[in-house]
Amino acid sequence: MKIAIIDLGTNTFNLLIAEVYDNGSFKKIHSDRIPVKLGEGSINQGYISEIPFKRGIEAIKIYHQKIIDFKVDHIKALATSAIRSASNGFLFTSQIKKLTNIEIEVIDGNREAELIFTGATYAAADKTTNSLIMDIGGGSTEFMIVKDSVLVWKKSYPLGAARLLQQFLPEDPISISTLQSITRFLSLELVELIEQLKLHQPTKLVGTSGAFDSFVDMLAAINNQSGINENAVSYEINLEEFYSLHKKMLASTHSERSKMKGLIAMRVDMIVISFILANHILSLSEINQFFCCTYSLKEGALVESIKRLI
Fold first, then answer.
1. Is the peptide bond before 173 cis (omega within 30 degrees of 0)?
2. CA angle, 4 then 94 then 138, to 5°
């Protein structure tokens, strides 16, 4: 049996196709990502602008053809922050249904967090014990606290990299005053998270996919090592090296970042915001270990779908 998962994120649409076996195990046979930037120019105004709208439709049409080519048996398509908060989100999903017959489920932040947790713990259960799992998206950022392998708290915040980028419009490079404004804003918005960190005292930060993959790839390039590959699902990030790279990113221009090894083009605009987010969380906690897990929402949705279908 073949299952396709489509993750319609704010910045990127991801496709995962897996071959599923009778015992419930699976093998990824195709993956793809298309930078659609649905929130471009209007995410904080609550709608999808015309050009991003068209980009998103075209991306799904491409994925639909690949699903046909791979003779997929089941499709699960999930839409997150940009679509759920857009006044024309229903128009977008309806048009996709009309063009491709793909039914898109628009999920709330709690559901998003649950699927991220499922994906991360499936891939790296030992790393997620007594941890804070963090997923930085374009429209939202999800946090999950895992204690003794149990999910004890979760919350989704509308603090994605695209939202923050549009809200604060950082200079090139970002100024100290804008950096201070962002960190003050995060501290005010994350009061409940701060309380939960004090209560549960996780010792590990596990960042899932996205920007955290770029952290790994950039640090690997600096150390002349290989970055993310298909043979591993979790990577430890050296905290001192992260802090050093964080400082470098704050001082960097867009042009300089576009030439940095390990940083893919689609993340050049928002990677500074992602570094600020991750660094801020580390500064609020007693975390002393930092991991990246390459499994996230789409893998969580795959694991869930397999349990339902097998």
1. yes
2. 65
Q: What pLDDT is stored for residue 307 in this prediction? A: 95
Q: How far is residue 59 from each of residues 34, 85, 93, 121, 304, measured CA to CA in Å?
A: 7, 20, 13, 29, 24
C-alpha angle with apex 14: 298 to 85, nearest 5 degrees? 85
What pLDDT was estimated at residue 70? 98
Is the whole model's pTM more than 0.90, yes or no?
yes
Eight-state DSSP code of residue 103: P
Number of domains present in the structure of the chain: 2
Which residues span the domain enclosing 149?
110-297
Residues 46-76 as b or e (16 or more Cβ within 10 Å = b): ebbbeebbebbeebbeebbeebeebebeebb
pLDDT beyond 90 at 187: yes
- Indicate the DSSP class of residue 46: T
- Edge to edge, what strands does the sheet with 2-8 contain? 26-35, 12-20, 2-8, 74-79, 104-106
CATH label of the domain that carries residue 60? 3.30.420.40
DSSP run (H or E) holding 142:
strand 141-147
Please identify, among 107, 127, 159, the residue that sits at the C-terminal boundary of a domain.
107
Same domain, 133 and 229: yes
Two tokens, residue 96: 């996709």
